[in-house]
Design brief:
CATH architecture of the largest domain: Up-down Bundle
Strand content: 5-15%
Largest sheet: 4 strands, mixed
Strand order of the largest sheet: 1-4-5-8
Helix content: 40-55%
Structural class: alpha+beta
Order of helices and strands: HHHHHHEEEEEEEEHHEEHHHH
Shape: globular
Number of domains: 3
Number of helices: 12
CATH class of the largest domain: Mainly Alpha
Oligomer: single chain
Distance between the termini: 36 Å
Radius of gyration: 22 Å
CATH superfamily of the largest domain: Butyryl-CoA Dehydrogenase, subunit A, domain 3
Number of strands: 10
Length: about 400
């Protein structure tokens, strides 16, 4: 297998690297890995940077040119992800929608929907969130009960969504609703998008153990939704959702793995264990070496998925493997960080240590890390997919 890049691909890398070095704001690098901005001020800063990215066509590069992308190939996408992480560039306000919902609209949407929705999504002029999960429909998504009743000229939507990331910043929500209650569970579901500023929409915050506001509950009380907001065939929303979820699994399992490992290595240089830096301790050196091995295995598993795409082969188990292995990698990083910090790690917010100025951030990472095992479908679902579809094991 040849892992070398062509001269054209290396030129692409250097062009992107040069642009990012010149344009990524320094004040956005510290919290670059955070999926959701911590404040409206940071949200607006990220949106301003996203506008610059879109103007230079450095966002959604794999989208067709007519919709604001570059029509980039699979290898260029991989290079882009590596360089974006290397530059500590911030997650965009529409990062998941651009990677999941945008391609879904390109595949299923009408030309009018593509022209209306895609450009403002790329630029950040309009922001999006996802409305799939419900209180009684998480892993078993097809059990959703939010209903859209046909009222002739419009649908009337009533119900509740939960775990809605960045819903408090969103202008639009793309969601699944039940349009035929009499149909079998996976039938009678439709996909549509709803204006979050519509009468009858209410967003309530869900505060995490870290004190951060990432998730929300969203309630719909007889919300009017125009018929033209339906994406894909009526009652066939499950097929549309599977398109979105396939893209979602590709970016789930945590992010910025290499960057997080580098932060952990820097932490090891600051923390004293048994009278010397953790970076000189045999146990922690072995732990970090193992994490590096896991990181490399994750990278080459990703390359296997890319190879399938390049050859035009159907998706294999790699996406579910990336999700599962990526979750384990992040969990192990946080375990090692916790062991390094010891009891101080749990008190970082109360007793600041001048020698470890970022201890509080590590505490937040440790407390919040379990979320990656749920995002994009639980790791248990990923394991079931691998077991049943690849290994031929009986259904659990």
């Amino acid at each position: 297998m040849d892992f070398d890049f062509t001269p054209e691909q290396e030129a692409f890398r250097m062009e992107l690297r040069t642009w990012l070095e010149a344009n990524v704001p320094e004040d956005l690098k510290a919290n670059a890995a955070d999926m959701v901005p911590s404040s409206w001020e940071e949200f607006e800063k990220r949106r301003a940077f996203q506008k610059k990215l879109a103007a230079a066509r450095w966002i959604g590069i794999w989208w067709p040119r007519e919709y604001g992308g570059r029509g980039a190939g699979i290898i260029e996408q991989a290079i882009y992800d590596e360089e974006y992480e290397r530059a500590h560039a911030p997650r965009m306000t529409n990062h998941p929608p651009i990677n999941q919902w945008g391609p879904t609209v390109i595949h299923w949407g009408t030309e009018a929907q593509k022209k209306r929705l895609l450009a403002p999504m790329l630029s950040g002029e309009e922001t999006w969130c996802q409305g799939y999960s419900e209180p009684n429909a998480g892993s078993d998504l097809a059990s959703l009960q939010t209903r859209a009743v046909d009222k002739g000229d419009y649908f009337e939507v009533t119900g509740q969504k939960i775990w809605t990331s960045a819903g408090h910043f969103a202008d639009w929500i793309y969601m699944l609703v039940r349009t035929d209650p009499a149909a079998p569970k996976h039938k009678g579901i439709s996909c549509m998008y709803v204006d979050m500023h519509s009468p009858g929409v209410e967003v309530r915050p869900l505060i995490e153990i870290t004190g951060a506001h990432h998730f929300n509950e969203v309630f719909f009380d007889a919300v009017r939704v125009p018929k033209e907001n339906l994406v894909g065939p009526l009652h066939e929303g499950w097929r549309v959702a599977m398109t979105t979820l396939n893209y979602e699994r590709a970016i789930s399992g945590g992010h910025n793995h290499a960057s997080q490992l580098n932060h952990l290595i820097e932490l090891a240089k600051k923390v004293t264990v048994n009278g010397h830096p953790a970076s000189e301790d045999d146990y922690f050196r072995q732990q970090i070496a193992q994490l590096k091995i896991e990181l490399e295995s994750l990278k080459y598993t990703g390359y296997r998925a890319l190879t399938r795409q390049i050859k035009g082969q159907p998706a294999g188990p790699e996406l579910s493997m990336l999700k599962t292995v990526g979750c384990n990698l992040v969990l192990n990083m946080m375990r090692v960080a916790t062991e390094m910090l010891g009891g101080f790690g749990t008190l970082a917010g109360l007793t600041p240590n001048p020698s470890i100025p970022d201890a509080r951030e590590w505490l937040h990472r440790v407390l919040g890390v379990r979320g990656v095992t749920i995002a994009g479908g639980t790791t248990e679902i990923s394991r079931n997919i691998i077991g049943e579809r690849t290994l031929g094991l009986p259904k659990s």
